[in-house]
Design a protein that fits this description.
By secondary structure, this protein is an alpha/beta fold. 38% of the residues lie in helices and 9% in strands. It has one domain: Rossmann fold (3-Layer(aba) Sandwich), CATH 3.40.50. It contains twelve helices and eight strands. It comes from Carex littledalei.
Length: 360
């Protein structure tokens, strides 16, 4: 009997390791879709709604400065590979040998100088553009891998984004149309590509580069840019022009990923398709266990989107739904833990990553 148990154990171990790979660390870059607490390392700012309850209620039971009710994709990735949840890179005294998160709420792919040069600098609060995040990573690299970083980072997983969303918000919330904003897509994608090359030069081999989300399906945009023209909406009830902008970014990003893969054949550059998977969730929420694809769980006002910009999640007057696992959207701007769990599976095993993170 004991022999059979041992055989079963080793067989299960073999099946798991034959399908996946081991990473010694995960290093993440990005914005509020990925931040695990960089904005709150010195305490929770009282002015930041994202740093108030009920954020964090589902998994952590407390606010962690994650923009969700619980875990994010980077959390699920870390747990899948048996690594600790990624500590924020700005947290002094942390051990970053098994991973670190450079992502920070409000981050952009481009620098603040870029936004001032195009006249929208006052519309962003740029807490750490990609260039700065890479500098943060360089600052901790010596404590992680000393003088032999290339050998260590070769066996680490890098997640570069999502980035770009706040770059477009700077323009959109500054009064520009999605069509006008699209003229900046090539420069924003180039910034992401340049960031990837910097990491490759340091020794990164496995890099996940996520697309931007279908913002035209998010309650914040659906509420702020409501239209009386039915032709502005697609069959799912999403705003066409906003999703066209996201699609244009993603097509350029996919081309950039393909170019990087050709330029660096010794790497695995993985295009992670946030967009298509979220569209699938909006199209058929019940297939994912959701009751709604377009309504926020946490917000105020009820109605079609349960979103009021003056009573956002974490503000007075807003409240969370009784079961966030039944919703795609957490606060009208970010997704629920349940959605991020599904997305992680789509990246690990496919079909929403090209190639999937896991390989034989």
């Amino acid at each position: 009997m004991k022999t059979l148990v041992l055989i079963s154990f080793f067989l299960l171990s073999y099946l798991h390791t034959s399908y996946s790979q081991k990473y010694n660390a995960i290093y993440s870059f990005g914005d509020s879709v990925s931040d695990t607490g960089n904005l709150c390392v010195n305490g929770r700012p009282s002015s930041l709604t994202l740093a108030q309850p009920p954020y964090g209620e589902t998994y952590f039971g407390k606010v962690t400065c994650r923009c969700s009710d619980g875990r994010l994709v980077v959390d699920f990735l870390a747990q899948y590979f048996g690594l600790p949840l990624l500590p924020p890179s700005k947290a002094s005294g942390s051990d970053f040998k098994k991973g670190a998160n450079m992502a920070i709420i409000g981050a952009t792919a481009q620098t603040s100088a870029f936004f001032y040069s195009i006249g929208v600098g006052s519309n962003i609060w740029n807490n750490g553009p990609l260039d700065t995040q890479i500098q943060w990573f360089q600052n901790i690299a010596s404590s992680v891998c000393g003088s032999n970083c290339k050998a260590y980072l070769k066996n680490s997983l890098f997640v570069l984004g999502e980035l770009g969303g706040n770059d477009y918000n700077a323009n959109l919330f500054g009064g520009r149309t999605p069509e006008q904003t699209s003229s900046y897509v090539p420069q924003i994608v180039q910034a992401i590509s340049n960031g990837a090359e910097k990491l490759i030069s340091m020794g990164a081999v496995d890099i996940v580069i996520p697309s931007v989300l279908p913002i035209g399906c998010f309650p914040v945009y659906l509420s702020l840019y409501q239209s009386s023209n039915a032709g502005d909406y697609d069959g799912l009830g999403c705003l066409k022009s906003f999703n066209n902008l996201a699609n244009y970014h993603n097509s350029k990003l996919k081309s950039a990923v393909n170019s990087l893969q050709s330029k660096y054949p010794g790497t695995r550059i993985i295009y992670a398709d946030f967009y298509s998977q979220v569209i699938s969730m909006v199209q058929s929420p019940s297939s994912y266990g959701f009751v709604s694809g377009l309504q926020a769980c946490c917000g105020a006002g009820g109605g079609k989107y349960n979103y009021d910009n003056t009573k956002r999640c974490g503000m007075a007057g807003a409240s969370a739904c009784s079961d966030p696992s039944k919703y795609l959207s957490w606060d009208g701007i970010h997704l629920t833990e349940a959605a991020y769990r599904q997305i992680t599976n789509g990246w690990l095993k496919g079909p929403y990553a090209s190639p999937p993170i896991l390989h034989n």
